[in-house]
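hi! just following up on the protien thing from before. the input was this:
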Amino acid sequence: MFDCSQTCKNWSELKNRVAKSKDRNVYDLFNSGLGCHHAGMLRSDRNLTERVFAEGAIKVLVCTATLAWGVNLPAHTVIIKGTKLYNAEAGKFVELSVRDECSRMLEIISPHFLTRVNHFYHSLFWAKP
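and the predicted 3d structure came back as:
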């Protein structure tokens, strides 16, 4: 789908690391230039997925909204689908306030890498040029 083997300097090394993942989906997606990131993954697989995306070994990363909070990944396009996050105290999903949403957008935007942001409604979709 998205061949990154010619454009990523460390592609072979990263492919070997991905091949050692306990989650076969991480490897299968990697070979298509794709990645997936969510809380149900092992921490080591999440970290590896973040690294291979940051180094350009995959072009597209689909993830849950929580990745946007505190993780700065260089991306060409970010699509945010949703303005709700799970609130453990309330025991339900709650709508973000305008202040929180603006803060979230500022954390996502990396002016050196990001050229446009499209705001939608529930997960994130990161794409490299």
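The chain has a mean pLDDT of 77.
The chain has one domain: 11-127.
cheers
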